[in-house]
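SUBJECT: protein chain
CONTENTS: sequence, structure tokens:
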Amino acid sequence: MLVFDGDCGFCTTCVRFVERYLRPDATIIAWQFADLGELGVTREQAEYELLWVDQRGRAFGGAQAVAKLLIHAGLPWSAPGLLLRVPPVRWLAHWLYRAVADNRGRLPGGTPACALPADRRPLQR
């Protein structure tokens, strides 16, 4: 399961890309509509980064969630996903993910709401 921030225009744009081109055999849900307790994650985790929750209930966040998504999507996407799991690429991916996530309101598809704290963002549908 892929859990993303449904209030963020940039995140929603990225998820639409994933649905259209990667077509993973996975549930994709905005954290605002997910039963986070059932998934074993907290609201704070979901607000902070993209989450991938596998069938065993293990949660992966940020760049590692992206890696798991790519791996799960199959070829040709699994190759870069596997690469994202290996140091030093893993470290660089983490840094890049944080840079993007921290500035998502300034990126294409982002909205001013992306820069607001989660409790002050209007829900985008």
Notes: The first strand starts at residue 2 and ends at 4. The chain has one domain: 2-117. The first helix runs from residue 9 to 22. The CA atoms of residues 106 and 112 lie 8 Å apart.
